[in-house]
Automatic annotation (TrEMBL):
It comes from the Bacteria. The chain crosses the membrane at residues 6-32, 44-66, 72-90, 110-130, 142-161, 182-201. It is found in: Cell membrane. GO terms for cellular component: plasma membrane. Signal peptide: none annotated. This is UPF0056 membrane protein. NCBIfam families: NAAT family transporter. Its main location: membrane. It is a multi-pass membrane protein. It comes from Flammeovirga aprica JL-4. Belongs to the UPF0056 (MarC) family.
């Protein structure tokens, strides 16, 4: 049970990347009051959690409606996750890329904080793959949801204490951590691809 919890926690911590969200949060809330920053952090966390819970609840149903086997989605999802990981390692880091997308006309709690910073494409794929109904019991799916919410709770705390954390690690530190997370994510992605291929050939 502990190994399952630890594995899924690492997977979610990697794809959600709450540390990489810190410089993004600082950039979009630079001129806001303390109360406004707290409100933005809360709204972003709730919105991102809602998006991921939605895909946990109905993501697989959507695949069934459009008649896409879960093994196919797992292979495709693994490939997308791997490409996503490569951009984290070799391309712009998460903070640099998402800060460049800031549009002052948008609700920054929704874009870029909730999506794509927290509820990223990688996170959406991960929650669907880690709650596959044919592989995981209802109890395991609930546990996975709680693990995801735990990581979201950490992201919320990181945003609340972002200034103090950023003073210690800086933008370069956040970028370095993001690249390490990308390396871990690439290994997770390869595992999903191999599992999907095995399920495909077994069927």
């Amino acid at each position: 049970m502990f190994q399952l919890f630890f594995t899924k926690f690492i997977a979610f911590f990697t794809v959600i990347d709450p540390i990489g969200t810190i410089p993004v949060f600082i950039a979009v809330t630079a001129k806001m009051s303390k109360d406004r920053k707290v409100s933005v952090a809360k709204k972003a966390t709730l919105a991102a959690s809602g998006v991921l819970l939605f895909f946990i609840a109905v993501g697989e149903v959507i695949l069934e409606v459009i008649k896409i086997p879960m093994s196919n989605f797992q292979i495709a999802g693994g490939i997308v996750l791997f490409l996503f990981a490569l951009t984290m390692i070799f391309g712009e880091s998460k903070p640099e890329e998402e800060i460049s997308h800031i549009d002052k006309k948008e609700d920054v709690a929704i874009f870029p904080l909730a999506m794509p910073s927290l509820a990223s494409p990688g996170a959406i794929l991960a929650v669907m793959l880690l709650t596959e109904k044919s592989k995981y019991s209802v109890q395991e799916q609930v546990l996975t949801s709680l693990i995801m919410l735990t990581v979201m709770g950490m992201a919320w705390l990181f945003m609340l204490f972002s200034s103090k954390i950023f003073d210690r690690i800086g933008n370069s530190g956040a970028a370095l951590i993001s690249r390490v997370m990308g390396l871990i994510l690439s290994a997770v992605a390869v595992n999903h691809i191999l599992m999907g291929l095995r399920a495909f050939f077994e069927n």
